[in-house]
Amino acid sequence: MQATKSGICWRLFLFSCVFLESLSQDFGGQTQFICTSVPKDMDICAATLQNSVPGEDLKNTVMQLQETVFQQKENIINQKETIRELTSKLARCESQNSAEPGDARPGGRRKETGTKNTMGDVSRGPADTLTQLSQTLQSLKQRLENLEQFSRSNNSVQANSLKDLLQSKIDDLEKQVLSRVNSIEEGKPGLRNETEQRGRVESTLTSLHQRITDLEKGQRENRPLDKFQLTFPLRTNYMYAKVKKSLPEMFALTVCMWLKSNASPGVGTPFSYAVPGQANELVLIEWGNNPMEILINDKVAKLPFLINDGEWHHICVTWTTRDGVWEAFQDGVKRGYGENLAPYHPIKPQGLLILGQEQDTLGDGFDATQAFVGHLANFHIWDRKLSVEEIYNLATCSSKAQVGNVFAWMETSLDIYGGTSKWTFEACRQLN
């Protein structure tokens, strides 16, 4: 009987020690053991009970501690479940408020996803849309302030002529802003921030209209139709110019223009020509950290141009379908050449020529990250390869310089959209 009692006591004692050690570890503590000397012939259980609480009380204490630990573990499990549930809800909310990224396209060009409106814009979140429109209005405001200063110093002659062109574009922009804000408010009633932004936008538009009215009080200038530049102040997917007529079939070509930009990274897409079934029939693009490229039938040649320094530069690219030979000129100097660029592939007719945007589909699929930012002027296209002397004459404003026989730079040859503006420009004046 004594042996049995001693065995039970030993098991209870060991169980208490193991259990207390486990409890200490669960709560991040450190276990400490207190050793007490016991005479050789003395009953261990008796000694243990003598130096602690009575046996029954010790057993009850252990059971209470065990129950407490179980309750704590259950609480922790419940709390973890709650945390997981809240984390899941937060992730869903964030995913609903985030725009879906575009799909990667071959050659490093990205195709936007979403629904496009008639301006080529992609549907986006309310805050993004209003922010971008506000930026556009701010840019218009800055250009008008510059015009006022120009008007005071030039008797309002050139300024008033240019403001007629901006008037219609601002009217279109106003309709676009109000339409989008109304659709946002109808879809999400009670959005106070969007309502406040609408008020600010309407106020800005009213101020712009008043300034235009004041500037229109004066004599208009009858400037030549080729003495102008296009300005693309923002990297958007709705600012562009469209050439009114298509290109003919061409077995050789020369494309020349004046460019000014300090955009980074990459100046964007000065022009793109798309035909049915081929969006990259003829494209000039500098996107991201890539060098400027010329694409013909989606085949690529890298061009040695360095133009994003905020200065005007004259660039020309020549190409012939025989062996796909190409040459690149900057400021009248030949900078590079190559071959095997879409050899024996003629440039197809019945396409659409866009200035300022890269087309993913015929006349659509614009991507803001590939848009041209800067100034463009004297854009000409020939259906032959110009000589080195002819290109030099163009870059130096020689009296012998010719205009494109396929496309010549004229205001009446273009339609402009989305806030792109026209300003007086004379290339020869830039060189003096």
In short:
This protein has about 425 residues and is α+β, with helices and mostly antiparallel strands. Helix content is about 40%, strand content about 20%. It contains 8 helices and 14 strands.
- Category by helix and strand content: alpha+beta
Which whole number gives the mean pLDDT?
A: 74
How many beta-strand runs? 14
Oligomer: single chain
Radius of gyration, taken over Cα atoms and rounded to an integer in Å: 38 Å
Q: How would you write the strand order of the largest sheet?
A: 10-9-8-3-12-1-14
| Fraction of helical residues | 25-40%
CATH class type of the largest domain: Mainly Beta
Question: How large is the share of residues in beta strands?
Answer: 15-25%
Explain how this protein is built.
This protein has a seven-stranded antiparallel β-sheet. The chain has three domains: 2-85, no CATH class; 126-215; 228-431, Jelly Rolls (Sandwich). Helix content is 40%, strand content 20%. Mean pLDDT is 74; it is low at 1-5, 12-16, 22-34, 98-124 and 216-220. It contains eight helices and 14 strands. It is elongated.
